[in-house]
Amino acid sequence: MKLNQKQFDELNNLDSWLYNYKSIKAGIENLKLECEESKNVSIGSADPSKETAVTNKFSSNVENSIINTESLNNRAKFMESKIKKIDRALSSLSKDEYLIVTNYYIEGKHIYEFTHELGISESHCRRIKDRAINKIKIALYGVQVKN
């Protein structure tokens, strides 16, 4: 299967989303807090001095607050959607695949740190990890990549 540039970029970006999974979840919560804070900012009244005769554009604290809140909401929704898709893809993995992916990517452990707990060799663990990542790619993007 030939990949277009967007699919190629998404596949290469998967590792980054998995490695930064916890930070992204924290970022979502922080964006939501920022949205709430932005909504609660004292809006006040529009300042007529900000009106410009040349462009007939009007800029105000209200307008800026709405634009900022909308931008924060959109970023949070995008990140939240991506995390939900990753969670759904992770739930499709076998127990061993799930443990390997979460330990390696999300917890940031080295393979040798958890293979003993699973009772498998490092090389077998790497094969399972590769198979699991391929399953995640299929679940997220509908694309299977041959190794």
From TrEMBL:
Record's InterPro entries?
Answer: RNA_pol_sigma70_r4, RNA_pol_sigma_r3/r4-like
Q: Which residues form the RNA polymerase sigma-70 region domain?
A: 89-137
| SUPFAM superfamilies for this protein | Sigma3 and sigma4 domains of RNA polymerase sigma factors
* Protein name (Swiss-Prot/TrEMBL): RNA polymerase sigma-70 region 4 domain-containing protein
The organism encoding this protein is Clostridium omnivorum
